């Protein structure tokens, strides 16, 4: 599946701007992680883009979240992508690198977006690792971003500060698409 095909699926299934932005952000973080780990950048980006494809349909039925996405995707993506999508909603144990990456990136994207939105100019390019780390330590800030899930990135031998840098860099690359202002 190409990025364009994944974006088309998102447009067909997600009507909420925030959810679309979240999907773009997770896709960007996953692509940057793949680059860092010498993995398949396109596959990892597609995984990040599509991980919440069913969210609007399953938001009142969280037990089916991710299961429905895998069903919707059918044979359009390989099993690694489907497994990562299942693992991000704890429908599968975290085993493969792509699963661990998505599990952590999903949560970190929310923390980053929240950190950008409280900045005066709302520019992701001006968000520093130091500033994000401070927000990470503040448990009252962006409570929905599960810090323990973000820390799972250590299983890929990536330090937290490095993960923050990788994620910010990935999001900066698509900052015009994110429309965070």
From TrEMBL:
SUPFAM superfamilies per the UniProt record, alphabetical: HD-domain/PDEase-like
Keyword terms of this UniProt record: Hydrolase
Domain HD per the UniProt entry, residue ranges: 19-111
Family annotation (SMART domains): HDc (SM00471)
InterPro entries documented for this protein: HD/PDEase_dom, HD_domain, HDIG_dom
GO molecular-function terms, A-Z: hydrolase activity
Protein name: Phosphohydrolase
